[in-house]
Write a structure and sequence with these properties.
This protein is mainly alpha-helical and about 160 residues long. It is built from nine helices and no strands. It comes from Lentzea albida.
């Protein structure tokens, strides 16, 4: 379904901010908080974020690369995310982040004790909660953008 966007309006700004301002602004604040307040390393952050983008099919999210202090992941990082099980480009934390994102999105009932034991060996409880909240935000907002066709209307800002 495509939402009718008035001419001259930014699609995401209009849908999130004007159509449902009470919910949309809170959602926007959560979305921003995930990027502004993360304590996770860039590689595990992007591994989880990109895996959700791949699952959602959000074109905007697939094109986006998080930048920290002028640093972004390498150009072929998204390919490594697709192959998270076998790539040699990931350390254990990045591999687990991609796995967790995939399982959270596609099989959250299958998150068993073996998985949690592996997570606990590489992440603190604080990091696990933060990663979970981030994955949840990316899942819902990327899917919303994709379902409403907003991802095809948005363009990445030029920096």
């Amino acid at each position: 379904m495509n939402i009718d966007i008035p001419e001259g309006k930014d699609p995401i700004g209009y849908v999130w901010g004007e159509l449902v301002p009470g919910i949309g602004m809170a959602a926007a604040n959560l979305s921003l908080a995930v990027y502004q307040h993360t304590t996770l390393g860039l590689r595990e952050f992007e591994a989880a974020r990109l895996r959700i983008a791949q699952i959602n099919g959000c074109m905007f999210c697939l094109d986006w690369r998080t930048e920290r202090d002028g640093v972004k992941v390498e150009d072929d990082f998204a390919d490594a995310v697709t192959q998270w099980r076998t790539t040699d480009a990931f350390d254990d934390r990045a591999r687990l982040a991609a796995e967790y994102a995939e399982r959270y999105a596609l099989d959250h009932h299958g998150l068993d004790e073996e998985f949690w034991a592996r997570m606990a060996r590489h992440y603190t409880q604080v990091e696990i909660v933060e990663l979970t909240m981030s994955i949840g935000a990316w899942l819902v907002f990327g899917r919303l953008n994709r379902v409403f066709g907003l991802d095809a209307m948005c363009v990445l800002p030029k920096f």
